[in-house]
């Protein structure tokens, strides 16, 4: 991570306050977002998201489990983050492990209150347990937003062989996996939120901060916003505090940004799905 | 009730679906699956909560400063049945530090009684909440350690931990910008519970599928009253935008109430310690008078 001198910080802060940032963006403008799905053939679903120089890959694997008695028709969604040492030497060894663990806990908390009734196969018998493994290959700020995109994109393109319950004798249900390779189950992603990170720099609020801008921000919070603009989770990261007035402004902004991000992402996925034959680019730009 | 043969049958039946069987599976049906109405009335009935409070009433609070002898500053705090003990020590040098840090660090550890397990994320949340209130610029290269033991987690444990930690910092005579107070607000449909107990928290984290309002969740926020700053905010659940903003205002006003209480308690503590100082001085003076005469 590049350390900034006080003068450089003042330059960046003044830029954000004047609504022209270092790279020419406005306060509420994201860097160009690249999403590519299906880049890992062995996974049930995968997506790579590039947000400027931030690079994130998400892989989905699905398993089944017996639900607990008090939640008989709810599936599970588990996230696991791995910070690659290629992103920053900071992530090497024990320290990287600790940071990954912290981020994993935060993310699982943010995704905790999603309604997952669509992840149910047969109530009280079997539900889907969906694991999402995220690896951060390169990090230039705003990692959480990129992770949010990658998770949603990967889940939206996941294909798992369908499991059907057939009524057997004695009223017991037997589960069978279909033989037809085109008969698949895809998770319903309408409940999956997007993460929106907002940082307060000087007197103004901005989205999608780069590494340098993150160093200048006095307050950062992350909101999980659904497609309808509802808030699933809000949490503060990093040191710093904020006035209640600014904070409510921040929440309002996050909700509207979150909604537009959802519509952009869904239309992009739809467009990609419509392509008849698509070459997978991967790392060959 | 179930007889032993039926239970054995049930176990055999369950074995087919492998995995561990929670003991709740063996409870009779009427205990196992409560209706939503039954669950709600257990917690909230006729405008009263289970412990007789109204919805916007906090539980009784008890603060004791200097509960630990060894620590530099300490605080024991009770909110209803939730009991929290906090000790502060330091400042000391940051171990294995390479280079120079301008700002000191706050090292927080939250432990809990094994009987009432609490969250893994609490330590991090406490650190995030305390950092802005502590004058870190006065302690370059140094760290203070705050350890919190949650003795009994019956709701609003994180809020209690934050308030206790801030009071312990004040009691340790360490420089802070302001005393931090924290409150948890629970939300379930149209009902808003201030300072929820653990049962109310569980209700707030669940939702009724068929009801009109799907709003539910918990909000914990910590607030510096004089500086007018929110230092920590954690919300989980599903909430409309407007509701979220309204709930924040309610939480802040409650934080201000607790602030007044904390201030009074600290003033009492100062008075007591001042009295001890003057008392010892009086004794010393009289001893001197005796020796001269």
TrEMBL record, chain A:
Protein's organism: Nezara viridula (Southern green stink bug)
Annotated GO biological process: exonucleolytic trimming to generate mature 3'-end of 5.8S rRNA from tricistronic rRNA transcript (SSU-rRNA, 5.8S rRNA, LSU-rRNA); nuclear mRNA surveillance; nuclear polyadenylation-dependent rRNA catabolic process; rRNA catabolic process; TRAMP-dependent tRNA surveillance pathway; U1 snRNA 3'-end processing; U4 snRNA 3'-end processing; U5 snRNA 3'-end processing
Any Gene Ontology CC annotation: nucleolus
UniProt-annotated location(s): Cytoplasm; Nucleus, Nucleolus
Keywords: Cytoplasm, Exosome
GO molecular function annotations of the record: mRNA 3'-UTR AU-rich region binding
Protein name: Ribosomal RNA-processing protein 42
Pfam families xref list: RNase_PH, RNase_PH_C
Keyword Cytoplasm: yes
SUPFAM superfamilies the UniProt entry points to: Ribonuclease PH domain 2-like, Ribosomal protein S5 domain 2-like
Principal cellular location given in the protein's record: cytoplasm
InterPro entries: ExoRNase_PH_dom1, ExoRNase_PH_dom2, ExoRNase_PH_dom2_sf, Exosome_comp_Rrp42_subfam, PNPase/RNase_PH_dom_sf, Ribosomal_Su5_D2-typ_SF
Domain Exoribonuclease phosphorolytic positions: 29-161, 191-251
Similarity annotation: Belongs to the RNase PH family.
Keyword Cytoplasm set for record: yes
UniProtKB/TrEMBL annotation, chain B:
Record-annotated Exoribonuclease phosphorolytic domain positions: 57-175
Gene3D superfamilies: GHMP Kinase, N-terminal domain
Subcellular location: Cytoplasm; Nucleus
GO terms (BP aspect): nuclear mRNA surveillance; poly(A)-dependent snoRNA 3'-end processing; rRNA catabolic process; rRNA processing; U4 snRNA 3'-end processing
The keyword tRNA processing is annotated on this UniProt entry: no
Highest taxon in the source lineage: Eukaryota
GO MF, any single term: RNA binding
Alphabetical list of InterPro entries matching this protein: ExoRNase_PH_dom1, ExoRNase_PH_dom2_sf, PNPase/RNase_PH_dom_sf, Ribosomal_Su5_D2-typ_SF, RNase_PH
Chief place of localization: cytoplasm
Keywords of this entry: Cytoplasm, Exosome, Nucleus, RNA-binding, rRNA processing
Cellular-component GO terms for this entry: cytoplasmic exosome (RNase complex); nuclear exosome (RNase complex); nucleolus
Family, similarity comment: Belongs to the RNase PH family.
Protein name in UniProt: Exoribonuclease phosphorolytic domain-containing protein
Native source species: Nezara viridula
Lineage of producing organism: Eukaryota, Metazoa, Ecdysozoa, Arthropoda, Hexapoda
């Amino acid at each position: 991570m590049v350390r900034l001198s006080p003068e450089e910080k003042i330059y960046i802060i003044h830029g954000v306050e004047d609504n022209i940032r270092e790279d020419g963006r406005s306060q509420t403008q994201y860097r160009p977002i690249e999403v590519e799905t299906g880049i890992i053939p062995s996974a049930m679903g995968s997506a790579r998201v590039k947000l400027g120089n931030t690079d994130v890959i998400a892989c989905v694997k699905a398993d089944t489990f017996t639900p607990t008695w008090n939640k008989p028709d709810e599936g599970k969604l588990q996230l696991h983050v791995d910070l690659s040492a290629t992103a920053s030497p900071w992530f090497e060894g024990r320290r990287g492990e600790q940071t990954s663990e912290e981020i994993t806990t935060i993310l699982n908390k943010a995704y905790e209150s999603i309604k997952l009734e669509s992840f149910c196969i047969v109530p009280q018998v079997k539900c889907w347990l969906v694991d999402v493994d995220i690896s951060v290959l390169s990090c230039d700020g705003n990692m959480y937003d990129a992770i949010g995109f990658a998770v949603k994109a990967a889940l939206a393109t996941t294909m798992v062989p369908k499991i059907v319950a057939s009524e057997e004798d004695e009223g017991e249900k037997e589960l069978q996996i279909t033989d037809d390779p085109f008969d698949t189950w895809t998770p319903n992603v309408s409940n999956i939120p997007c993460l929106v990170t907002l940082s307060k720099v000087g007197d103004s609020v901005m989205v999608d901060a780069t590494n340098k801008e993150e160093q200048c921000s006095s307050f950062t919070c992350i909101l999980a916003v659904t497609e309808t603009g509802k808030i699933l989770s809000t949490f503060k990261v990093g040191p710093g505090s904020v006035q209640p007035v600014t904070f409510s402004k921040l929440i309002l902004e996050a909700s509207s940004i979150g909604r537009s991000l959802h519509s952009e992402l869904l239309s992009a996925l739809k467009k990609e799905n419509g392509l008849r034959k698509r070459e997978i680019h991967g790392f060959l730009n | 009730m179930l007889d032993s043969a039926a239970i054995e049958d049930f176990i055999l039946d369950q074995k087919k679906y492998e995995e561990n069987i929670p003991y709740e599976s063996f409870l009779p049906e009427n205990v196992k699956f409560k209706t939503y109405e039954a669950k709600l009335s257990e917690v909230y009935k006729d405008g009263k909560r289970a412990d007789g409070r109204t919805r916007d009433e906090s539980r009784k609070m008890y603060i004791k400063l200097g509960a630990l002898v060894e620590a530099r500053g300490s605080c024991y705090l009770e909110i209803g049945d939730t009991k929290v003990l906090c000790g502060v020590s330091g400042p000391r040098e940051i171990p294995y530090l390479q280079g120079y840090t301008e700002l000191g660090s706050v090292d927080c550890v939250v432990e809990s009684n094994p009987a009432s397990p609490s969250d893994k994320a609490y330590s991090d949340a406490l650190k995030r909440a305390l950092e802005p209130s502590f004058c870190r610029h006065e302690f370059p290269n140094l760290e203070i350690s705050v350890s919190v033991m949650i003795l009994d987690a019956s709701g609003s444990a994180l809020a209690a931990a934050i308030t206790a930690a801030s009071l312990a910092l004040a009691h340790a005579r360490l420089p802070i910008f302001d005393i931090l107070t924290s409150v948890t607000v629970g939300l379930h449909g149209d009902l808003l519970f201030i300072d929820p107990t653990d049962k109310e928290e569980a209700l707030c984290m669940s939702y009724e599928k068929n009801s009109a309002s799907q709003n539910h969740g918990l909000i914990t926020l910590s607030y510096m009253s004089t500086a007018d700053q929110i230092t920590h905010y954690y919300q989980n659940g599903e909430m409309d935008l407007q509701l979220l903003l309204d709930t924040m205002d309610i939480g802040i006003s409650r934080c201000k109430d607790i602030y007044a209480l904390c201030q009074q308690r600290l003033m009492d503590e100062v008075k007591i310690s001042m009295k001890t100082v003057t008392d010892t001085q009086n004794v010393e003076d009289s001893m001197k008078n005796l020796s001269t005469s």
